[in-house]
């Protein structure tokens, strides 16, 4: 009971000390916020983007077939669609054309889906997709639409390459829809969808597709992959879902990882900074500790007091960091951190970006805060706790 | 250590303390230069006098168990404590000793009542009781209505009163006061002296280092470190 | 190197935990001889550094596993933490030993020192000399602190995404795994059934001996002349812990992991830790109980009065943690609070939970149906399958839980029903032929051709 009262008294005093030494408190909080808030923001954004990417992957094909063009992904002939469809275990094949065009000064990804080949009902089940587009029709991503002020019904002109001396020509399209909505992944914001035939015209690749999307019966992926390799030969590159997942993870983590490595440097710097800031007001604190010891305060009670102060600042700092991170994500779309994780974010108004602040990063920010304040305070705590109460009588600091 | 019924509170016999020299290689500094002794019993005030640097504060520190002597013996409540561990000395101070320092040594930005209640915090005294005790002591020192004023908002005399109140908050058996009237105006001095007399009546012992002549009539014994004279019983 | 947020934080904590160790080693090199005899401020700084390092290492312990777990998606072939540890097996295994040893050693030293200081506060007399245990544990702890920090850095920096690994099934699911072979050798063929009762008995022994020791200390008198009982109780606690720890590991692998993960033939503790809600709680209460009881035993018999209260506190805490461990294991065993209610089986009407025996059927454009077992699914197919076109039947591999098409799976019909389902079930599904062969032998059954074959074929079925 007495220990409980003593502990509560120490907590009160620790809270009072944080107010009495405002410079130290503010500097320590600022250090914690400066390190933890950007880290949490970036992690939440990375997690949100990953979630969306993996959801897209989950809804996507089991196998992706591209051509092999001198060791790089190349186009595939449309005849392959029938060959692939005949492989035992395949339920759906959809050819896709993907290309890049310039819209004024910005690049945009152009996508078109070809005619599906599969068993009855498979397309509805596996790839409900979007409304079909006719010749001359486009659906534009929301960020592009916002940037260029495009609305449904507007006309868009694209500069397209042609054979012959003119080299290029303009072709007009009508915008019949916008790729927008609460379920749209963020990268659809910079996409432009068109009809498959139009894409073949635009890129002068008649009879070809960029890739074939293949859906299979569960457990047959490996067998189908082997069979298709035999049938299509070395001209085909076949990627299964685990491989695609690995590329997704690697892509995100490479970008996020560079960010985190920079952060490791920032985290490491925070300890000496905190050690210095813990020394703010040290002489006054040594004097006070010496006075307390003259009343019979034990060194462990002084240390407990300092520990409570450190933990309180750490908890407050980490909590503020969480709040700041959420506000940054909601109101600021994590600018300018979003440029690290989402190329093009700095150029186009992508709108609200997906984020998810999982429990693990929040826990880690508390762990970081407590660790850093404890380590930064060790030397100051030692010097303060070593204060000699007798020196007070002699007029010294202790 | 058993609760104190003993009449003798503290006895110093031929004590001195060794301090490290300012410069490496110099000999250590011995204070006081000639070993001294004193005794404080319950209900009496002992006055230590001497010129600046004679070792008054050091003697007070040894009596108040802030240090162990390099030479001589210290007995506290009848027990030899010259060589006990720092942790045990701490415990004795917590239970039996109160200090009033020459430069007050109040905490910045702390309300007066909280300064006075500090010694009670780690004794597990309930918060409300501690605050009441602080208010009572400050009231007796004429500081009604000033309990919530912070240290910087108090005058020198008021700070001195708060320092003395803090020394007495836990009801110590031995009060050690170093120049408790050094900056006190006549009103403050009168109130402090009254409070110390009240302590003596309740059975505490008071050890004072001071040049102030107002303590002379109150002192049962006086020790002058300059000429090693001890007067009184 | 694989870079994820938990890995970065773990690297940071490893460095931050290493620095106090190095500084403490430097201070001790100069002042170690004065330890326990009129120590100066340098030794006090060592105490502060080690106290801070202790806190950091305790926090870092679960974070290390979180960091390794975060690397699982990046490592080819890894299904769980175990796969990640195969990137650097020697260092990873050493780290998993050094961490608990460090925490026990450092915590034990802190307990001994703080109890000595508590005694000094209460009794007149000069400072107590440090005990032999304290003087041995101090350099040992500092050494372990440095080694542990370095090991963790080596492990984390060794994580690379381009190296394929073999995962837990190829080690923990072998018939001759140690956790199965050793108990069988000691207790006979049916030893698996004895492991959980043995673990419970040893846990209760630890609880009772800790409680008895705490009670005798609380009474503050020697229950028998001399110091025999406290010494024997200390030995009893030590002996109980020595038996409890391996019993818990073996029971965990052989019985708890299969039951709690729902994979009846999978014996991986890492999967239990990383893939079940109970796993982390089981690990935390187990570690808390063993450590606190061990520290309490270190303080017995108490050399001085200052050790009495800490010993009581540690023994009581150790008992409570061990009781909590048994409670969490029981909760997992009976699936208390387990969500994942999948509704009623269309075949037998029984309540369905997530299990490896589930079967999913999609018939044409109809919604997906889930059945509790192959038996119910086969009955439905016999009833409805002929009239359906485009039947998709997906089943689960009993080793990994992976969903696969029934045509791609290998099916074993066992001699007995071991699933405990409402209509019973003797059919077992495997993704790999080797596993099917092994289990056909274990279950005293046969490989059979696809029992889910049906006449409503859409032409895509191989």
Unreliable sequence segments of chain B: none
Q: Can you write the helix and strand succession of chain B as a string?
A: EEEHEEHEHHHEHEEE
Largest sheet of chain B: 6 strands, mixed
Unreliable spans of chain A are none
What is the 3D shape of chain B?
Answer: globular
Task: Note the run of SSEs of chain A as H and E.
Answer: HHEEEHEEEHEHEEEHEEHEHHHHHH
Number of strands of chain A: 13
The count of strands of chain B amounts to 10
Number of helices of chain B: 6
Overall 3D form of chain A: elongated
Q: Which terms would index this structure?
A:
heterotrimer, A: 398 residues, alpha+beta, 11-stranded mixed sheet, two-stranded antiparallel ribbon, elongated, C: 462 residues, 4-stranded antiparallel sheet, 3-stranded antiparallel sheet, 7 strands, 59% helix
What this model shows, in words?
The complex is a heterotrimer of chains A (398), B (233) and C (462). Chain A has 398 residues and is of the alpha+beta class. In chain A, 54% of the residues lie in helices and 19% in strands. In chain A, strands 1, 2, 4, 5, 6, 7, 8, 9, 10, 12 and 13 form an eleven-stranded mixed β-sheet that branches. Chain A has a two-stranded antiparallel sheet with strand order 3-11. In chain A, a hairpin with a 2-residue loop joins strand 4 and strand 5. In chain A, helix 2 (22-59) packs across helix 10, helix 8 packs parallel to helix 12 (359-385) and helix 9 (282-294) packs across helix 12. The longest helix of chain A is centred in the first third of the chain and has 38 residues, at 22-59. By secondary structure, chain B is an alpha/beta fold. The model of chain B has no long low-confidence stretch (mean pLDDT 86). Chain B is built from six helices and ten strands. Chain B has helices at 56-63, 86-96, 112-121, 127-140, 156-168, 186-201, and strands spanning 8-19, 29-41, 45-49, 71-76, 79-80, 97-100, 174-178, 205-209, 219-224, 229-232. The longest helix of chain C has 34 residues, at 89-122. Chain C has 14 helices and seven strands. Chain C has 462 residues and is of the alpha+beta class. In chain C, the strands form two sheets. Chain C has a four-stranded antiparallel β-sheet. The two termini of chain C are 42 Å apart. In chain C, helix 1 packs antiparallel against helix 2 (41-70), helix 2 (41-70) packs antiparallel against helix 4 (89-122) and helix 4 (89-122) runs antiparallel to helix 5 (132-157). At the A-C interface, helix 8 and helix 12 of A face helix 1, helix 2 and strand 4 of C.
